[in-house]
Amino acid sequence: MCGIVGLHVRDPELFPRLGRLLETMVGGVVERGPDSAGVAIYGDRRRCPEGYAAISVLARDVALDLPGLLVTEAGDTTVLAAPMPPDALVLAVRTALPDATVVGTGTDLTVYKGTGDPRTLAGTYDLANATGWQGLAHTRMATESAVTPEGCHPFSVGPDQCLVHNGSFANHATIRRELQAAGHVFDSENDSEVGARFVADRLARGEDLDKALRLLCERFDGFYTLLVTSADGFAVVRDAIACKPAIIAETDRWVAMASEFRALAELPGAESARLYEPEPERVYHWTREGVRL
Description:
Layout (H helix, E strand, L loop, with lengths): L2 E7 L8 H10 L8 E7 L10 E6 L11 E5 L2 E6 L3 H11 L4 E6 L2 E7 L2 H7 L9 E7 L21 E8 L2 H10 L9 H14 L4 H11 L2 E9 L2 E6 L8 E4 L3 E5 L15 E3 L7 E4 L3 E2 L1
Antiparallel strand pairs: 1-8, 1-13, 2-7, 2-8, 3-5, 3-6, 4-5, 9-10, 10-11, 11-15, 12-13, 12-14, 15-16
Helix pairs in contact: 4-5, 5-6
């Protein structure tokens, strides 16, 4: 039992309010996951300026000699941004901090993860002041692995990609072994990380997000609602039984998804939004240019 919220903003007038809206949404799913919380923000140019790449790591007191480097500490997470390609920044950080866990990379994305009360963590992340065009958050009630920052969601294992999960995968150990045999290295024992690395692997092979999630439904057994984000947009999919709660709301100004309706109730225009429950094993995918169902 975990809480998921996601917000994809269509109206640029709402970009400055992204973080405050997300913070309100997190408040609606705290009881579903009191152990920890993670947040992903897309398009906040204060955290990742135009022409920069950003990397989020579980480390403190980071000292790195890079031109133009911006360093922001937020609880267990430190975000480093620099005017260089993402791969070069990742290499520099991994070389300087070999023991640090990388929890997010990209040119549009910053990720924050930590344990504790989700409302307190939202303040630690300065979520209310985040801006941008898309964000997601997860509040965790641990079932498959320990309550640690490494085990928190979102799992971001590909560039500008994130996955959050409510539920459990029954055959994650088998798929983990397959991915490890193919060279993938895991940062936690969390079953959700297996799903994230499976999706990232399929995307790296050139498949689109829709196909990657359809393949996940074919390969993974268990009960799940997934929200997956990328630099292109976000997608939602549920298992064949769809026993894990999810509700989607759409207006001309935004698309939002949450585990509880109350997490959506205070969004602007929610009273006239189109509301529906996603169907089993159907991929719902919204892009910055439009929507694909």
